[in-house]
Amino acid sequence: MLIFEKTVPGRRAFSLPALDVPEELLSNHIEEKYLAKTPPSLPEVSELDIVRHYTGLSRKSFGVDLGFYPLGSCTMKYNPKINEDIARFQGFAHIHPFQPEDTVQGAMKVIYDLDKFLCAITGMNRFTLQPAAGAHGEFTGLLIAKAYFKSKGQKRSVVIVPDSAHGTNPASATMCGFKTVQVKSDRRGCIDIEKLKEVLNEETAVLMLTNPNTLGLFEEDILKITEMVHDAGALLYYDGANLNAILGICRPADLGFDIVHLNLHKTFSTPHGGGGPGAGPVGVTEKLSPYLPVPLVDMKDDHYYFNYDIPHTIGKVGTFYGNFSILLRAYAYILTCGKEHIRKVGEIAVLNANYIMKKLSEDYHLPYKRICKHEFVISASEQKKYGVHAIDIAKKLLDHGFHAPTIYFPLIVDEAIMIEPTETESRETLDSFIQVMKEIAKDAREKPDSFRHSPSTTPVGRLDEVSAARKPVLRWEG
Ligand SMILES: *Cc1c(COP(=O)(O)O)cnc(C)c1O
């Protein structure tokens, strides 16, 4: 029910004392032509109606604060509440980007330090914190690569992506005016080196890689790959969406990457189930640093300042200095973990994923039988024989109180189910998920018809997904 439907004409959520000045004094300040002809159509409800309405809505949605959320590739980890408190500190939340530098030195220190932290974590030389999400980071990183080759007088027009890549990779390449060439994965789920050789040439600008890739598998030949790409005169782009797997364990720069983006909302704990806002900082090696967006925050005589003097800068890629409150959360998160403990994030994320993978491989087809990193992909190909598909399994999980995993991605696995437990879940939660997945596999064999009406315990039942995407009803016509 929409709040408009709760309207009782004349009902108000406030009461004010009667005017003690003549009414004429208050009106007539706005020219007639700017005034609305009819009053706005607003809901007429009491304060209690509003509170109940929105509290009720909040109870209808699912979030990581409510239950297990194994949405592969999205890193739905628990977001410590202290980060939320810090993001709301008045000294941060109430400042304005146009304030003089002297008055916002604390906020500038956060940007300055976070750049340093991310450099330490990735091995890169310098970060811009402006991009608002991973995809925006990809776009920024590719603009940097483009500017770099242009200044070298090289015409390189091709971006290579593996067939397991996230859809944003080819999309960003296209937005930047590059041509995308796909390279196939081999039987072990990694880039096929022979196939890469075939497509790599003097036209290649960038190879974009996710490592571990979207199958949750580490590119074993990564050093060989980066050498090949560099020998061809091209650059390597690291899609950092899966950084959680290697956090504190290995650094993209040491693997040979030239440009990375990080999804702060994934790896560094910002609530992001609703779609945003996020932050997608981009880090580059020393030779690419002169191309970064302006401004960067630098320090001189114990004073932080916005540095617009970046010789080959690609310009600005966002308003002001990025989604500052997301940067703050990441800053708080990194400091909470500290250098001593941040490695545990990656270790436990990997342990949790392997634990579930092993147990589920008894009931589901596991296309790549290798140790995984922080996530893994199983296939519902066995269940398909009984008419039960990945989507049916995902819907059934909702009835058991779990969020669905990512399904039908990556595209190279038939009936893909991609599971990422993250490091913040307990052994008990993993065990109950495993047990439910085993029950579902049994139901698929014994009563495949029972899937048809799932979910039945959620606020909305089985939706027509195509109509929901193609003809969404977004407007209330009252
Ligand atoms: C999430 C994701 C992206 C895109 O990041 P956004 O922050 O959602 O824009 C890119 N690549 C991979 C592998 C991802 O999982």
Largest sheet geometry: 7 strands, mixed
* Poorly predicted runs of 5 or more residues: none
The third-level CATH topology of the largest domain is Aspartate Aminotransferase, domain 2
* Helical content (DSSP H or I, runs of 4+): 25-40%
Beta percentage is 5-15%
Number of helices: 15
The 3D shape can be described as globular
Strand order of the largest sheet: 1-7-6-5-4-2-3
Mean pLDDT: 95
The CATH architecture of the largest domain can be given as 3-Layer(aba) Sandwich
Bound molecules: pyridoxal-5'-phosphate
Query: Which structural class matches the secondary elements?
Result: alpha/beta
The end-to-end span amounts to: 12 Å
Tally of extended strands? 12
- How many separate domains? 3
Listing every helix as H and every strand as E from the N terminus to the C terminus, the arrangement reads: HHHHEHEHEHEHEHEHEEEHEHHEEHH
Characterization of this structure:
With 478 residues, this protein is α/β, with parallel strands linked by helices. It has helices at residues 47-60, 81-87, 90-93, 105-122, 134-151, 168-175, 193-199, 222-231, 252-255, 264-267, 324-360, 381-384, 390-399, 427-446, 465-470; strands at residues 126-128, 158-162, 179-183, 204-210, 235-240, 259-262, 282-284, 296-300, 303-307, 376-379, 406-407, 416-419. The protein folds into three domains: 3-60, no CATH class; 81-337, Aspartate Aminotransferase, domain 2 (3-Layer(aba) Sandwich); 346-470, Alpha-Beta Complex (Aspartate Aminotransferase, domain 1), CATH 3.90.1150. The protein contains 15 helices and twelve strands. A seven-stranded mixed sheet has the order 1-7-6-5-4-2-3, with helices on both faces. Helix 6 (168-175) links the parallel strand 2 and strand 3. Helix 4 (105-122) packs parallel to helix 11, helix 5 (134-151) crosses helix 6 and helix 11 (324-360) crosses helix 14. The structure holds pyridoxal-5'-phosphate.
